TrEMBL record:
Residues at the active site: 92 (for ompdecase activity), 94 (for ompdecase activity), 97 (for ompdecase activity)
NCBIfam families, sorted: pyrF
InterPro entries: Aldolase_TIM (IPR013785), OMPdecase (IPR014732), OMPdecase_AS (IPR018089), OMPdeCOase_dom (IPR001754), RibuloseP-bd_barrel (IPR011060)
GO cellular component term of the entry, any: cytosol
SMART domains: OMPdecase
Record's protein name: Orotidine 5'-phosphate decarboxylase
The enzyme's E.C. designation: 4.1.1.23
Pathway named in the protein's UniProt entry: Pyrimidine metabolism; UMP biosynthesis via de novo pathway; UMP from orotate: step 2/2
Length: 261
């Protein structure tokens, strides 16, 4: 099972999406399984945060639609810092509509997500055509995460819904790199999906609006997931660089202990 395999080993397993292989190698090289969620409201804050935490992360997650002045300057700045600091960019748009509409949301409008995001995510409640539609509109350097479980209290993504996400992912291993979930969903021999887990903060249990937090040790060590996604825990700190390093070190240690290296 993948929980006892290193990121490096998993990078070259068969049926691993090209973006997943690249990300697994990058994680191993930089020794970081931390994704910072940059939920800030201006281009200036976004680019500053990317510079500050860039060395400690494998991925930066954006919500482009909450950036007041999102535009070409945001895109160029983000691409430049990502190339310089070696991290991938994940746009957390959570597509959830009919195929024809998600293709437009992905490629057009003011955000032009297809031009700059390496990773995107989608809900499968509209049915599996959402995967086909996004894959048709994508290019080789884009990969999809399916939202299989959420971190928020009382969410409905459990049981057979979550299982169905895994079934659909297995049908599209070239395009679907993994899941947003609270535990690893690699249950069958041959599964090598990457699980990314939000709802991580040290020293907090929730935010009063449904968010529920776990520690890096719980998520990586016990639940066997691959990447922690941390928003307010990092960008809400005075010293964001130091805070990102703290999360990186704890999540990396939890991984090393799990794989026994
Ligand atoms: O660390 P936080 O609570 O400040 O931010 C968590 C980030 C937010 C959410 O939109 C996102 O993670 N998120 C997601 C994602 C990544 O898809 C799913 C989920 O179940 N919970 C969650 O918080 O940007």
């Amino acid at each position: 099972p993948t929980v006892t395999q290193s990121y490096q080993e998993r990078a070259s397993l068969p049926k691993t999406s090209p973006v997943a292989s690249y990300l697994l190698r990058l994680i191993a090289a930089k020794q970081t399984n931390l994704c910072v969620s940059a939920d800030v409201s201006t281009t200036k804050e976004l680019l500053q945060l990317a510079e500050e935490v860039g060395d400690s992360i494998c991925m930066l997650k954006t919500h482009a639609d909450i950036i007041n002045d999102f535009g070409p300057r945001t895109i160029e700045g983000l691409k430049e810092i990502a190339a310089k600091k070696h991290f991938l960019v994940f746009e957390d748009r959570k597509f959830g509509d009919i195929g024809s509409t998600v293709q437009k949301q992905f490629t057009a409008g003011p955000l032009q997500i297809v031009r700059w995001a390496n990773i995107i995510n989608a809900h499968i409640f509209p049915g599996p055509a959402i995967i086909t539609a996004l894959s048709q509109a994508a290019h080789d350097a884009v990969s999809l995460l399916i939202l299989a479980e959420m971190s928020s209290a009382g969410n409905l993504m459990t049981g057979s819904y979550t299982e169905q996400c895994v079934v659909e992912a297995r049908k599209n291993p070239e395009f679907v790199m993994g899941f947003i979930a609270q535990r690893t969903l690699n249950e069958k021999p041959g599964d090598n999906f990457i699980t990314m887990t939000p709802g991580v903060q040290i020293g907090a249990t929730g935010d009063g609006l449904g968010q529920q937090y776990n520690t890096p040790e719980k998520v990586i060590g016990e639940a066997g997931t691959d990447i922690i996604i941390v928003g307010r825990g990092v960008y809400g700190a005075q010293d964001k660089r130091a805070k990102a390093e703290e999360y990186r070190v704890r999540a990396w240690k939890a991984y090393e202990e799990r794989v026994g290296s």
